[in-house]
Amino acid sequence: MQPKSFLKTLSFLHLSLVIGLILFAGIAYSQSNSITVEPAPKSFFLYLVPIVAIIGYFGSQFVFKKMLLTIKLNTTLEEKLKKYKSASHIKFFLIEIPALVSIYAFYTTNNALPLVIAVCLIAYLYVQKPSLDKIKTELALHSDEIQQLQNAKNK
Q: Is the dihedral of CA 75, 81, 84, 85 positive or negative?
C-alpha cells in the first residue's frame, strides 16, 4: 500500500459511509407521517437503540486503541498503515451499525429518540474523519515516516 493512496482511500471510505447514513436517515425521515416523542409503552427499540449506541460508541474507541497498541514501533510504515486502516475500518463499522439500527428504529416507530441518537452517531462518525495529523499522532510516527507521508501527499 502506497502512502499516497492510503489517505485518499481511507477518506473516500469514510465519506461514503457518512453520506450513506445521511441519505438513509433522510429517506426514513421523509417517509414518516408523524413524528412522536412519546415512546410506545412496550417498545423493544426504546431499550435497544440506546444500548447499541453506547456499545458502538465506547466499543469503537476501545477496539481502535487496542488495535493501535498492537502496532510495533520497529515495523515499516506500510505495515503500520495497513494496521491503521484495519483499525479504522472496524472503528467506522462499530459506529455505523448502531446508527443504522437507530435509523431503522425511527423508521419503524416514528419516535424521535432513535433519530436523535442516529444524528449524534453520524456526527461522531463524521468527526472521525482521517487526516494526516491524526495519523501522525495516533501512530506516533518517527520524523522520517512523517516525511514519507508528507512527500506522498504532495505528489
A: negative
